[in-house]
């Protein structure tokens, strides 16, 4: 994984940079010649700021094809890292925002200007206000993806700063950014009463006309904001309460999940009620009415704060919630002069939201809640979010305790493999025959490892480990080693018991999820194409082709698979991913290859290798 530079983190609280970003973000709305503005800074270090304009058309916020919340699978070609590695499911993103970014990427000078800034080794900052912030998020991730493919760490990591940006991605989107260690590249400023960041929490597909009126009302170019008619007041109130009700539903649902209340009733409820898929990510800085800035990184806590800062008691003046959306430039500049920042994650890290909190520490929590103008009822939900985060780290600690156990078991299987080779036996065939005590002991190790890895996969699938766990190189390497060393034993066991006859081919019906995941894990870490590292399934390929040929299938029908396997064998032997014991004279592979048609063997890409095997045999 590419490390995030310290310079990007330092830039996040640079007052001069933030002043330029918020000013440019507001100016971008008035640009008629380009979807973004570009500004360069020379001090304190060379920097290029790309500020994206927002859209005030409802068509650029929601469409009927992806009802009710406008979310759909992200473009995997542009954003290959944004997916879940366990399920291989792509992240979901607001489709109109994605479409807008794709159009900018194709039709504007963005790529050329970004490439120029990268070549000049400038710090690149993407910024935007309102939906322009959502576009800047996608631009930053796009460049981060490009870094992975073409950069060896020679350039500055891009940074993204948004102001009043709507939520854009789902839980998998948030998880992927954490896994890749990119989440720290994103800084979001939100006024506590600004309605716009919460808008995606409501089912906008059924509110498109109202949304268009709202966007027209808050458009910086519009004069509607100065109007205070009864009709506009009613519209703002209805829209405010619609967003608020949906935010409340999501807040309660998320708290239930965080507190472990995932009952069947809750599952049935989610089948009837469609929840907004969007989740916050990165660092959120809430701009409080008393001039204080509250910084929070916990995604679940941010989601709770987006509701509790906007709760029903504040609905007396709906105008305020919409007017605040256009006050970032004036208010933020005054806030930055004071630099009065409270780090909400500090409170969580010190367990000030815990149920066993010292009474002397309660004033700190009360101050925190008062800064954000949240009631004490928010405390329980913030505690649930903090506790869930801490539980994930406790789970990780327990999993880390098994690391040495897995290593010891793999070392034992490495020794078993070496012993088999000394006896002139192929590792796979010796295990498949199960004739000696050593074979039985190897099977015990296989089963122990299966239990340990199944627990990890299950916890990952339930999001019970920190999102960064999947990005840890020590575990990625251990998973790859496990897959290469142990999956051949699972394949041997599968065909030893003739499970293919009842269940079907191993690759189609029998392959456990733990091997699919560790394979994808390794491929993702090395930026390899999906499905390109199937060397651990070598024996399953041999067994299936052999079974087809034994069932009198004509060679011409399996020839293409044979050629592909031979090409892979050559590469895997050269790389060391396939052990030399597969070439021992009595191995299943050697016997199968020797039985191939003579004419094919003469022209085979591994003919020379197999000729040496034949002579030595």
TrEMBL record:
Enzyme class: hydrolase
Keywords (A to Z) from UniProt: Hydrolase
UniProt keyword Hydrolase, yes or no: yes
EC numbers: 3.1.1.1
UniProt-recorded name of the protein: Carboxylesterase protein
Organism: Dioscorea alata
């Amino acid at each position: 994984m590419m490390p995030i530079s310290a310079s990007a983190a330092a830039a996040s609280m640079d007052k001069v940079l933030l002043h330029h970003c918020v000013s440019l973000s507001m100016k971008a709305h008035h640009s008629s010649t380009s979807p973004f503005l570009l500004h360069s800074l020379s001090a304190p270090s060379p920097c290029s700021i790309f500020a994206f304009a927002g859209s005030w058309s409802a068509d650029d916020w929601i469409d009927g094809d992806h009802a009710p919340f406008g979310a759909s699978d992200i473009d995997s070609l542009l954003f290959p890292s944004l997916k879940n590695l366990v399920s291989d499911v792509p992240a979901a993103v607001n489709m109109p925002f994605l479409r807008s970014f794709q159009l900018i990427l194709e039709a504007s000078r963005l790529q050329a200007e970004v490439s120029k800034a990268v070549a000049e080794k400038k710090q690149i900052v993407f910024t935007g206000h309102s939906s322009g912030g959502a576009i800047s998020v996608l631009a930053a991730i796009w460049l981060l993806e490009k870094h992975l493919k073409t950069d060896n760490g020679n350039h500055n990591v891009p940074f993204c700063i948004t102001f009043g940006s709507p939520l854009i991605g789902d839980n998998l989107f948030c998880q992927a950014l954490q896994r890749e260690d990119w989440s720290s590249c994103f800084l979001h400023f939100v006024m506590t009463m600004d309605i716009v960041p919460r808008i995606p929490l409501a089912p906008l597909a059924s509110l498109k006309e109202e949304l268009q009126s709202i966007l027209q009302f808050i458009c910086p170019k519009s004069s509607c904001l100065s109007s205070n008619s009864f009709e506009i007041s009613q519209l703002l109130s209805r829209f405010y309460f619609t967003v608020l009700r949906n935010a409340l539903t999501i807040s309660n649902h998320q708290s239930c999940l965080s507190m472990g209340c995932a009952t069947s009733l809750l599952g049935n409820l989610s089948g009837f009620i469609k929840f907004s898929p969007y989740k916050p990510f990165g660092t959120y800085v809430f701009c409080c009415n008393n001039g204080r800035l509250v910084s929070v990184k916990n995604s679940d806590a941010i989601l709770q704060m987006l509701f509790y800062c906007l709760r029903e008691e504040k609905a007396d003046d709906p105008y305020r919630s919409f007017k605040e959306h256009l006050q970032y430039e004036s208010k933020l500049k005054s806030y930055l002069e004071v630099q009065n920042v409270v780090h909400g994650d500090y409170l969580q890290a010190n367990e000030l939201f815990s149920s066993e909190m010292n009474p002397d520490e309660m004033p700190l929590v009360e101050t925190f809640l008062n800064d954000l103008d949240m009631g004490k009822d928010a405390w329980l939900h913030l505690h649930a979010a903090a506790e869930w985060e801490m539980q994930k780290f406790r789970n990780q600690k327990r999993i880390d305790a098994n690391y040495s156990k897995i290593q010891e078991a793999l070392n034992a299987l490495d020794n078993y493999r070496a012993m088999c080779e000394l006896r002139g036996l192929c590792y796979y065939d010796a295990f498949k025959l199960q004739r000696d005590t050593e074979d039985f002991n190897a099977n015990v190790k296989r089963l122990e490892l299966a239990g340990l890895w199944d627990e990890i996969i299950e916890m990952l699938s339930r999001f019970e480990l920190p999102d960064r766990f999947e990005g840890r190189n020590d575990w990625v390497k251990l998973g790859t080693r496990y897959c290469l060393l142990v999956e051949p034993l699972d394949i041997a066991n599968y065909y030893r018991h003739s499970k293919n006859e009842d269940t079907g081919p191993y690759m189609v019906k029998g392959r456990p999820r733990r091997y699919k995941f560790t394979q994808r894990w390794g491929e993702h870490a090395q930026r390899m194409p999906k499905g390109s590292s199937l060397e651990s399934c070598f024996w399953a390929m041999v067994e299936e082709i052999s079974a087809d040929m034994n069932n009198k299938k004509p060679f011409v029908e399996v020839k293409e698979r044979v050629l592909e396997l031979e090409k892979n064998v050559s590469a895997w032997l050269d790389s060391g991913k396939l052990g030399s014991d597969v070439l021992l004279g009595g191995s299943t592979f050697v016997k199968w290859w020797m039985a191939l048609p003579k004419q094919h063997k003469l022209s085979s890409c591994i003919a020379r290798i197999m000729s040496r095997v034949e002579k030595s045999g």
